[in-house]
Amino acid sequence: MTDNHRPDEPDPTPVAGPVEQAYSVEKQIDLSQKSYSQGQLVVRRFFRHKGAMVSLFVLVFITVMAFTSIGYGIIPNWWNKTFYDAGATVDGGRPTLQLWPFQIGEHPFGQDTIGKDYFALTMRGTQRSLIVAFTVGLLSTIIGTFIGAIAGFYRGWVEAILMRVTDLFIIIPLLVLAAVVGKMAEGIWWLALMLSLLTWTSLARLVRGEVLSLREREFVTAAEAIGTGPGRIIFKHILPNTIGTIIVAATLAIAMTILLESALSFLGYGVQAPDTSLGLLISTYQNAFLTRPWLFWWPGLMILAIALSVNFLGDGLRDAFDPRQNRTAD
């Protein structure tokens, strides 16, 4: 075999230099790693937040127990006592629940002053408080998002009118306004609707600020240049980029509503007897704090557990949606 390459000529076979070798190694590394979309990264970050996962479990557990134990609507009950039937007081109405050795007993949360099962009463109060909190959280988020988006996008006199209305709601103390509308409301759903009309202001200001910033971005300018209508720009292009802020604000609104509804019911302006809520239970049995403290413990613990769980969920969602968070292994 004849070799046409002469000794005095350079070898035509390319030799991989350090640049080519580094590029090939980086390419192999990139190919070996799985790529994730933005939504998948958010989900991964959220499920890696330990505090959020514990809070989610606690909130789901409380919600399921409240709605299934004594039933609600078409949901059957598994607890054999109701929140409205009185009976004979056993052992002074003390709770029969024991952690060691574990025992539930006949009345795990005890009995009230007239012999009603306090577990059933607490679950009923938890139901009503959760209904108000999540309804207000959903409706106030929708109202605040809509008003904030319209004000931030159109600006001018539209923004001036909407923001002055928002300022008018803000300068009046929320508890005073809520007490007035709570006294007017008839039923749990009307109370939730009335509170929704009062608690949207903070989210409206947040969304307005986000929309004002996004309004000047190139993708909005490009959408306007091709003739896209304002409604499509707002709901299809701008609001999806504010979803992180909206979700976090919604969770905080739920936690705030739990405390607001409890305060209103405690003052007598929220849920009215013969129905009950967690705040109303505390208000009803406040005079029994020294003689029967468990009548305070259980509704208070429920309020605390729900409020803390929702707040920790908000922290987890904020960390998941914030791209500036340092994550070494997304």
TrEMBL record:
Keyword Isomerase: no
Alphabetized UniProt keyword annotations: Cell membrane, Membrane, Transmembrane, Transmembrane helix, Transport
Transmembrane stretches, start-end: 54-75, 130-154, 161-181, 187-207, 238-260, 295-314
Stored PROSITE patterns: ABC_TM1 (PS50928)
Pfam families hit by this protein: BPD_transp_1 (PF00528), OppC_N (PF12911)
Top-level lineage group: Bacteria
Compartments where located: Cell membrane
UniProt-listed GO biological process terms: transmembrane transport
Cross-referenced SUPFAM superfamilies: MetI-like
InterPro entries xref list: BP-dependent_transpt_permease (IPR050366), MetI-like (IPR000515), MetI-like_sf (IPR035906), OppC_N (IPR025966)
One GO CC annotation: plasma membrane
Predominant localisation class: membrane
Membrane topology term: Multi-pass membrane protein
Domain ABC transmembrane type-1 positions: 126-314
PANTHER family (UniProt xref): D,D-DIPEPTIDE TRANSPORT SYSTEM PERMEASE PROTEIN DDPC-RELATED, OLIGOPEPTIDE TRANSPORT SYSTEM PERMEASE PROTEIN APPC
Protein family per UniProt: Belongs to the binding-protein-dependent transport system permease family.
Record protein name field: ABC transporter permease
Source organism of this protein record: Serinicoccus chungangensis
